[in-house]
Amino acid sequence: MQLIPYDLIQMDKEKILAIDEKVKKIYRLITFSRSHKADDLLDKFISCNNNLAQLLSIKNAQMEAQTQEEAKVYLGNLEKAIEFVVNEIKNSINFLHLTQLFKLFRLISPNAHARHPNKFRQTLVQIGSTVCPEPKEVPILMTELFRNVSLIDHPVMKAIYLHHELIRIHPFSDGNGRTTRIAKNWMLMYNLYPPIFIKDDLEKQEYIATLNDSFTVLARGPIKWHQATASFFDQELERILTNTELVLNDIRQLGDINQSTTQL
Q: Which residue of 15, 77, 136, 188 could cross-link 193, Cys pair, CB 3.0 to 4.6 Å?
């Protein structure tokens, strides 16, 4: 398997600019608004992000669990992982290293980790119609992936690229999807973007289908920027844009409420 060279990435720059501008608006409101207390806005911002982080755990559990009992176990593990990530961010620690990925894997899929502690998978796996790389290739690909991520400038681009390629490598025996989505959101939240997740069954089907299409065309080669891959990156941008808009609207509404109360 060959990873997508990071310099081939072609993302919608207008959407990235729109996301960045909304994030800036949030911090301008918190920092400079005179219509309401900055502490109130900051509390609201933290509450919005905490709610999104909680939804991230719930939606990730629903994404992969086959039974209610399994969903309950997944949710408990994911909540521990989110708590760990939030504490790391509080300590100014970004997601940068392979050792951090193993920490997430241990929290998210403890049974699989216990069977193969701090090791990549030892068997062949398949995603849809695409066969993932052989186990002996995984360590080399993972080293290359983290190197590529370190060379990408924009955090949103880093996060989506990591997500796409990490799922394609499928390094672990279990929990790859959950571990990847939390790692991606660690990057985003560290850089003050809201976390993103799959919100319903329709979006879940679209997510799986788009990834499968991308993996299929990449497996046929040669490695280039295909429309199927671009579609996945664009869908991820849309999810970030939606949640950024959600946080911005909540912040604005609090200001409107406070301003109306002051006028009365």
A: 188
> CATH for 6-255?
1.10.3290.10
> What is the rounded distance in angstroms from the CA atom of residue 187 to the CA atom of residue 28?
22
Comparing CA positions, the residue from 207, 241, 213 lying closest to residue 227 is 213
Domain ranges of the chain: 6-255
- The rounded distance, in Å, linking the Cα atoms of 98 and 208 is 25
153: enclosing H helix or E strand: none
Run of H or E including 217: helix 201-220
Strand partners, 126: 131
Cα separation, 238 vs 261, in Å, equals: 35
Say how far residue 77 (Cα) sits from the centre of its chain.
Answer: 17
Q: Residue 259 above 90 pLDDT?
A: no
Q: Is the full-model pTM beyond 0.85?
A: yes
* Number of residues that make up the chain: 264
Single-letter residue type at 84: F
Report the relative pairing of strands 130-131 and 126-127 from DSSP bridges: antiparallel
Residue 126: φ, ψ to 5°: -135, 140
Give the 3-state secondary structure of residue 147: helix
Strands (E) located in 1-107: none
Our CA angle for 68, 132, 219, nearest 5°, is 125
Q: What is the mean pLDDT of the chain?
A: 88
